Each structure stands twice: as structure tokens, then as C-alpha cells.
Amino acid sequence: MNRQTLLENPISTSACIRPIELYVFIDPLCGDCSSLPPLLRKLQVEYDRYFTLRIALRTSLPKMNLQCLHKDEDELACEKTHPAFPSIAVKTAEFQGKRAGFRYLSKMLEYSFLKSRNVSSFSVLVEIAKKLNLDVDEFIRDFSSKNVLRSLQVDLYMAKEMEVDKAPTFVFFNENIEDEGLKVSGLYDYDVYEQILEELVGGPILPDIPPPLEDLFQRFDTLSTTEIASIYNITEKSAERELKKRLLQQHVERIHFQDMTLWRKKMI
CATH 3.40.30.10 occupies which residues in the chain? Predict the structure, then answer.
């Protein structure tokens, strides 16, 4: 699981600044992966300066006739569905920016596991792009592009090179290019990932002070009451009280599910 063969596709220039590279392999249709966004958001808020995050797809894709996506973009009917579409959609959103890709993944998991929507449907995937204010025309155009499919193939190649055989899987690399990556399959408590970062950095790591709540909603589309309480290290009751103040001020809006409440910035 050496990094040498992967350096032909560098993540970003920021990888030279941050000491840790973190690859997170996900499968958009995997139930365990639905718990990832809150964990990754908290890691980013607290320890973003220590690592560069790369979301990669680890999906068992059935054979598909990709020619059907290239015949005519206007023929990409809204009724079309395919198990590969969610993975393609995440890569498509990433073409509008790394943050856009992560926001899209989070929203898609919300649609799939909280709203019980069929995210293998092209029309639902376009709806998510609209919700996130992505460039929808660009999203539809890129969805069937060879560049997006090539990007997905790169992720699958990386999964093979790093010997990742399930999702979710975290793979950590430190600054030493000769060192093997540290692979962690499955989901664990948050403090496990803190300990791994500390060990790889080689000393104590200090969490950043979380930004004001308004800035947090600028960065992430939706957040649960539990997640906000965890980020600010306060009780859920205190978090809900602060959120209700902003609800009355019409700064946020509340979305109810059966066993969860989500909050997002109120759209004007």
C-alpha cells in the first residue's frame, strides 16, 4: 500500500503544507457510510490544518453500457436509474469544486437514508444538485462526460493499490513518502481517529476553536442538533436553545425527520 504509484495524481498543493493525507473510501449505497459526514465534518472543523482530505469511491459497479450516456446528452431521460449513478454523481459534483463534492455526498446520503429517496435515479440526483445551488446545466453535461468516468476509474484504481476491499475505509499517510499507509476499515468512535492523527503527527494535536454557527452553516449545508452540540462541546439542550433563537430570527430553518432534526441556513 505504498504511495509511490499514486503520486502521478497529486491531491492538491495544500498536501505539501499539511502533514497527513487522509483518503476516505465510501460507497454511496452503503448504510455504514451514512454515518460518515458528521464524523468527517467534526474532523475538518477541529483538525483541518493537520490533514488533507480526499473522498474516494469504493463501489462494486456492475457492468454498464456507458455508451447510453454518450449518445446524446438530451436523451438522458429523467426516468433513468442505475446502481452506478450515485458514484458518478459524486464525481460529477467534484468537478465544481472539492467542497461541492463533499456537500453533494452529504446531501445524497441524507436523501437516501433519511428521506428514503432513490438516489440511483438520475432525476433525484439532479434535484440534489439544484438543492445545493450547483450549476445544474454543468452537472447534467458533466454527468455523461468521459472525464468524470475517468475520475471514477482513478478512485477504483487507488482502492486496488491501497488494498481497500470494503467501505468505509480510512487510509492515513504521513509526510514520509516511503512509509506504508495506515488502513482502518469500518467505523470507530471519534477519539480513535484523533489518536491516529496524533500518532502520525508525532506529538500532541490541538483542536481549533469552532467558528461561529453562521460560518458553520456557510460551510456545511445541513447539520443535526446532536452534531452541533458535539462540535461546540455543549449539551443538546443548549444547542437546541441557540438554534431556536436563530429560528425565530429567521436565520435558520428546521427539518424534521422521525428520529432526527436537521438545521440549515434559511434561504432568502
Answer: 4-201
Cβ atoms within 10 Å, residue 167: 23
- The DSSP secondary structure of 49-112, one letter per residue, reads GGEEEEEEE---PPP--GGGGTS-GGG--TT-B-TTHHHHHHHHHHTT-HHHHHHHHHHHHHHH
**pTM, 2 dp:** 0.84
CATH code, 213-265: 1.10.10.10
pLDDT of residue 220: 92
CB 130 within 8 A of CB 111: no
CA dihedral 172, 174, 176, 181 (to 10 degrees): -10
**Helix, strand, coil % (nearest 5) of the chain?**
50, 15, 35
Q: How far apart are CA 82 and CA 12, in angstroms?
A: 31
What's the number of CA atoms in the CB half-sphere (13 Å) around residue 127?
A: 14
Residues of the chain with CATH 1.10.10.10: 213-265
Neighbours of 189 (CB within 10 A): 9
Given CATH 3.40.30.10, say whether it is the number of domain 4-201: yes
Mind giving me the DSSP string for 123-148? HHHHHHHHHTT--HHHHHHHHT-HHH
Which residues of the chain are modeled with pLDDT < 70?
1-17, 60-79, 268
Q: What is d(CA 9, CA 152) in angstroms, rounded to the nearest whole number?
A: 13
Distance CA 178, CA 67 (A): 41
User: Do the Cβ atoms of 33 and 26 come closer than 8 Å?
Assistant: yes
According to DSSP, the residues that pair with 32 across neighbouring strands are none
188 in Cβ contact with 196 (< 8 Å): no
